[in-house]
């Protein structure tokens, strides 16, 4: 799969037109084939890019400007509609090319299943990879209604690949009894309900390790992000999410890839969900790009 040399739509604010100059590559994974409640997250990557124009390029939190880093927006990976297996394969092959070019992959979802092939590819390049997962849902099922390729299963697959002790989950407030039991019995670093406090406590353990960061927008309370496929009341605030991103950025953790998933624009006519997602992406780009 080639990089898109001429993305026909809008690009994320401040993106360089030159791939060779880039330190990281933004790409969309427009897949929602396994949505169990509300589809529509396949439109998330495009809308996040479009609304990013409302943002300033300067982050007063990190005191950095997007002009200080170089990132290329490769557009959306063309995925076969309704075919999860083939879609995941194409995402994996795209990310393999990003990794071979020695650039950091930065994905925009799409449903959370898209994280699975990304981590699988990055794991081939980095020993002792750990995953920081910030989400409302555990995503630790073996299957959903008999389907093993589901947005409810990616963290179970990742835990089995990396070892449960290398998975760190924060903000979880929804899951089956089996999922919660699995996390506790298999010694996943599992922190339900809270994000910032436990995250700050464990980050020293991850210093200098390669880490992949995956954020599901539904970790936010629906009051802050109603535009998502599976909203879950009782979440964190936008500011808490930004603080978590900044804590990772300042911790010395070696972030080798990241994604933000599950923005479904159709369910938020105010557009506050894609806007908060775009701001989170800006902070992640500035915080994780060294």
Top-tier CATH class: Alpha Beta
What is the residue-mean pLDDT, rounded to a whole number? 94
Our estimate of the beta-strand percent is 15-25%
The string of secondary-structure elements, in order, is EHEEEHEHEHEHEHEHEH
The CATH architecture can be named as: 3-Layer(aba) Sandwich
* Unreliable stretches covering 5 or more consecutive residues: 1-8
The helical percent reads 25-40%
User: What Rg do the Cα atoms give?
Assistant: 17 Å
User: Main β-sheet, in a few words?
Assistant: 8 strands, parallel
CATH superfamily: Ureohydrolase domain
Q: Tally the helices: what do you get?
A: 8
CATH topology description: Arginase, Chain A
Main sheet strand line-up: 4-1-5-10-9-6-7-8
- The helix/strand class is alpha/beta
Number of domains: 1
Distance between the termini: 27 Å
Described by the principal axes of the CA atoms, the overall outline is: globular
Cofactor: Mn(2+)
InterPro entries: Agmatinase-rel, Ureohydrolase, Ureohydrolase_dom_sf, Ureohydrolase_Mn_BS
GO molecular function, one term: metal ion binding
Protein name: Agmatinase
């Amino acid at each position: 799969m080639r990089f898109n040399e001429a993305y026909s739509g809008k690009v994320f604010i401040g993106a360089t037109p030159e791939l060779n100059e880039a330190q990281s590559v933004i790409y969309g994974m427009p897949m929602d084939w396994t949505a169990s409640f509300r589809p529509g997250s396949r439109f998330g990557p495009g809308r996040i890019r479009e609304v990013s124009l409302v943002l300033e390029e300067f982050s007063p939190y990190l005191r950095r400007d997007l002009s200080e880093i170089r990132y290329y927006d490769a557009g959306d990976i063309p995925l076969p509609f309704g075919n999860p297996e083939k879609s995941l394969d194409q995402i994996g092959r795209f990310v393999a090319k990003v990794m071979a070019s020695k650039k950091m992959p930065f994905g925009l979802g799409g449903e959370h299943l898209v994280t699975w092939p990304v981590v699988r590819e990055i794991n081939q390049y980095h020993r002792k990879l750990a995953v920081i997962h910030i989400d409302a849902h555990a995503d630790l099922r073996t299957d959903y209604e008999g389907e093993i390729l589901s947005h409810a299963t990616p963290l179970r697959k990742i835990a089995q690949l990396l070892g449960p002790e290398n998975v760190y989950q924060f903000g979880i407030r929804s899951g089956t009894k089996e999922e919660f039991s699995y996390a506790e019995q298999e010694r996943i670093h599992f922190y339900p309900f809270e994000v910032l406090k436990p995250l700050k406590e464990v980050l020293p353990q991850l210093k200098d390790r390669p880490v992949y960061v995956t954020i599901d927008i539904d970790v936010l309370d629906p009051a802050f992000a109603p535009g998502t496929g599976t909203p879950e009341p009782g979440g964190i605030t936008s500011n808490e999410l930004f603080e978590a991103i900044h804590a990772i950025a300042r911790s010395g953790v070696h972030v080798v890839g990241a994604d933000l998933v599950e923005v479904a624009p159709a369910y938020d006519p105010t557009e506050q969900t894609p806007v908060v997602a775009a701001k989170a992406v800006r902070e992640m780009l500035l915080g994780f790009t060294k």
